[in-house]
Amino acid sequence: MFDASHCRAGLIGALASLCFAATGALAQTAAAAPGKAPPEEIRIGYLRTYERTLALSVLDIPPEDIGIAGAKVALADNATTGKFMNQDFTLDLQSLKPGEDVLPAAQKLIADGAHWIVTDLSAEDTLKVADALKGTGALVINAGATDDRLREEDCRADMLHTAPTRSMLADGLIQYLMWKQWRNWVLITGSHSNDKLFAEALKNSAKKFGGNILEERVFEDKGGARNTDSGQALVQRQIPVFMQGLPEHDVVLVADESEVFGNYIPWRTWVPRPVAGTAGLVPATWHPASEQWGGAQIQNRFEKAVGRRMEPKDMQAWTAVRVVGEAASRTRSADPATIDAFIKGPDFTVAAFKGQRLTFRDWNWQIRTPILLGTQDSVVSTSPQEGFLHQVSELDTLGVDRPETRCRLDK
Predict the structure, then answer these.
(1) 181: which residues sit within 8 A by CB, 6+ positions away?
(2) CB of 67 within 8 A of CB of 299?
(3) What is the pLDDT of residues 11-67, one digit of tens each?
(4) Which CATH number fits domain 38-164+287-369: 1.10.3720.10, 3.40.630.30, 3.40.50.720, 3.40.50.2300?
(5) Which of the chain's termini has less CB crowding within 10 Å, N or C?
């Protein structure tokens, strides 16, 4: 007979695998034993909009399962513990195209029994879903929208956020540039609204940490097929001219969330300078090359399950689903009110392979998370940077802190 206590003896390799497999088998046998109560269902909804669109680089086109893959891996992680707690986790997916009405899909998820709705939507649709579900008691977990206003003037008591804010991303990047003592920058901004929001976040971060944006230029989106042979020739001639005549600077900051020009800036500047922002050195919640702090473990499991490396949005969705699983495990309950109270309580933390456990800011329900700074191939650094101190948590040096918040959670 197999003794599960052997699993606690620290065995490794093939014998350790046998331990876990045998323990799992014992748990399944116990679950099926006569008279044992059926597993308690914990149903999570996932609502997103997705449309395969072109990017400046074909390597940057989001895979069709972006985010969903992270949520599914997290569901499997939840199930590993859940089978010992007699808990059964399920994931209901609703995927729409941009512009489709999200409310019927959200309401269907609730009608089908989901209490937690993980969203990967625009800021407008995220807020629409949160407001529409206000009377249902559901908890929305925003894993996609980075708009600061969802955590500030448009915050909601029943809306949590595992996606970072633009201000967190900008602060993480600017902290590193200040640590490097590269303090003088020029800012190249796209002409679309999201570009301007990220540019504003960079300017606020520069003011916050004492950096200098010497000049800002706007790159107007005039359309055109830049990936053609003639388009590439125009890029090679036009970008350096566009960058000519700038004041002496250390780094070029780029704000191009709309993917119009940003990736054309590195190696095409008039003078040789590093590029950071939405191109060059990019801030994010995760990086496909991250393997520190046990990251190799989640990367390997993710790659085995999905067939690719984990992207930031996958990690944000993974974290959202794990938040529910962690709270269900810690409370040993499937009751939504009990789980929600623990998530919002002072003892909640969740591990996410970033060197420290993550917690929620109780003034706007934004999750505290380190920001990884990476190039296309590697992680360069992680913020908060050394020397950026805070009286509560160094993670609160990233983004809007409690004294500056405009959030009122009584809405």
Answers:
(1) none
(2) no
(3) 334 333 434 344 444 444 444 445 678 899 999 999 999 988 877 777 788 999 999
(4) 3.40.50.2300
(5) N
